[in-house]
Amino acid sequence: MKQITGKKSTARVVNMTEGNPMRIILMFAVPLFIGNIFQQVYSMIDTMIAGYSLGDGAIAAIGATSSLYSLLINIASGLNSGYAIVVTQYFGSGNEKKLKEAVAGMIQLNIVVTAVLTVVSVVFLRPLMRFMNTPEAIFSEAYRYIVVICMGMLATICYNMFSGILRAVGNSRTSIYFLILASLLNIGLDLLFVVGLKMGVAGAALATVIAQGTAAAFCGWYIVKNYRFLLPSRKDLRVSKKLLGELVSQGVAMGLMLCVVDLGSILFQRATNGLGASIISAQTASRRIIGITMQPLATIATASSTFVGQNWGAGKTDRIRSGLKQVLKMEMVWSGIACIIAAFFGDILIRITTGTEDLMIIQNAVMNLRWHLFFFPVLGALLVLRTAMQAMGKKIAPIISSCLELGMKGVSAAFLIPQLGFFGSSITEPLTWVIMLVFLVGAFCIQKRALFGESRWKENLEI
User: Tell me: the pLDDT tens digits for 15-38?
Assistant: First the structure.
């Protein structure tokens, strides 16, 4: 296999088609993990600063639109993760011409997506918030928070695009360094805008947008300076219809998978919002901790998808099987640690995160936290299997699994939460993970021979 490095580039690239799979995946995953933890930490600090400075109502205002915020972020992340799969495969196959065209297509598609998402999200924001049963007492504050986030979509999409390109060539470190810098900047701006300038939750949102824009700007500058072999020339901007279709197919598949999940989350959030501001605060606090503890699972799955993508492009299916077995072992180890955290430290973590003395908030948050963390072994296996199938071009089963999640959250919003209250909300996602994993295992077993028994996949990567 021809390995692309570029004559004018001395920047870091990682060929995942050679060497020990576990070592390579771990080395790739560690920087991703550190960066994601910083991202989650500054999200938690947003909550802490709002809670300590502005009270429980501010936490509820941020949390009331959290599923909508996740929808916007995951559209950007999902599309670019899908586009990056194509870039990863061409990098793995050594096809430099198609690699540059893929990057060009990625840029063009993101320009269109940024314009559409920004306009649509701002125009339909208030109706969406009404649909989500955002309590009137916190509606204005919640709107001020989310409208700033929506106006900053350019920063979010640019960062996801640049970091996706870097991950595709095996560089998981550089974008993380810039994200860490942005995280520290976010904390400083939080203190300035919220505590110093008394800008309320809108100040927290503005700090997030500025921090993301800073990370995106540094990532873009670094690619231009150090990865000349990735930069498309004028002739590369004429992306073939076949390649553009491939990018759209992968991007929409990954984006749709996450969007379907988040559409379900909006229905889910709508039902939870109807339970009152204190329950919203409990859910927001527990979700911040769940988000942090989930990062090792998500990071290992993301790292393994790059590993799978490069080896799929190189035609090394035996190496993919070996790597996935080792990845699943790593996921199970962290899942066991998460269960211990939930069992023994849940109450302490909730109190630290919120600064609240409201027992109703604390008890409900701990319940939600424990139900989720106790099912992390299921989630870990689900994430690895889903991202691996995506990286091998098998898009339908992951999308169907996301539709199952949408259906489960719809059922929960219609029946479980009205009947069982916040307990119904807490058990919905763990039960959904079980159903999704059972489906994906079945789909994977059915397609196993086609995935690992044929040698025709490389035809799709040829000029």
Answer: 777 888 888 888 878 877 777 777
